[in-house]
Amino acid sequence: MAAITWLLAVPSPRRHNPLRHSPLLPPASAPMSEIELRRSHQRSDGELRTIAAAIGDKLVARHGGECHWTEQSMHYQLPGTVNAEVQWNASEILVVLRLQALAAMFENAITAFVAQQLDRYLSA
Question: Which branch of life, at top level (predicted)?
Answer without folding.
Answer: Bacteria
